[in-house]
Specification:
94 residues; four-stranded antiparallel β-sheet; 3 helices
Length: 94
């Protein structure tokens, strides 16, 4: 049995536990700005290690000092508890 997609109500409840995250395009989304490219890339390196340890990887992009993160669980067909766990871990780096 795989990871289950959360209901809209469950997603809204979990969102209240996070700061800076929102729903965008059916995914958990967050935009971050750092002082420079090195800060943004260093942050992404830390997230990569977290993601690998959780076996759950973000969709993301980086332009100079900005990082955009989208979280969804492809196997579940939407947002799952894995996405919120990774979001919380990411927040722990900030």
């Amino acid at each position: 049995m795989g990871t289950k997609k959360l209901t809209a109500q469950q997603i809204e409840e979990h969102l209240t536990e996070l700061s800076g995250w929102a729903l965008k395009g059916g995914k958990l989304h967050r935009d971050l700005t750092f002082d420079d490219f090195v800060g943004a890339f260093g942050f992404m390196s830390q997230v990569a290690l977290l993601a690998e340890s959780q076996q759950h990887h973000p969709e993301w992009s980086n332009v100079y000092n900005r990082v955009s993160i989208d979280l969804t669980t492809h196997d579940a067909g939407g947002i799952s508890a894995k996405d919120f766990a990774l979001a919380q871990s990411i927040d722990g780096l900030l």
